[in-house]
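Lab meeting, item 3. Inverse folding demo.
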């Protein structure tokens, strides 16, 4: 599937937005809803190999929705449906009861980014 252009990469040099496949692999490592320093979110992985993603909610214009309750994190993979290919991308969406790496939303949505190191 096509990915976003590097000119739209919000990450610093040496970093990038993860692919849909990488987010699927992250979810495959297991996760648990937890709170760290009074911030709700999901901890993915196990043992000493974990990453905590805060439930940051989403933004629509100037309004913030669902902070502490749910979150979406962008992938760099465009949604492959012909109807939405130019304006949607896959994301990891989660809350207390689920983590879905196969969600997709319009690229105009204000959801979170979590950069990963380039290989």
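The presenter then showed the designed sequence:
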């Amino acid at each position: 599937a096509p990915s976003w252009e590097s000119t739209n990469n919000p990450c610093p040099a040496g970093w990038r937005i993860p692919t849909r496949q990488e987010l699927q692999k992250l979810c495959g490592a297991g996760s648990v809803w937890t709170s760290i320093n009074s911030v709700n979110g999901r901890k993915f992985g196990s043992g000493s190999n974990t990453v905590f993603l805060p439930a940051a909610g989403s933004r629509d214009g100037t309004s913030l929705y669902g902070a502490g309750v749910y979150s979406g994190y962008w992938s760099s993979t465009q949604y492959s449906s012909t109807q939405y290919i130019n304006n949607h991308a896959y994301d990891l969406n989660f809350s207390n009861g689920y983590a879905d790496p196969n969600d997709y939303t319009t690229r105009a949505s204000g959801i979170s980014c979590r950069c990963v190191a380039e290989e």
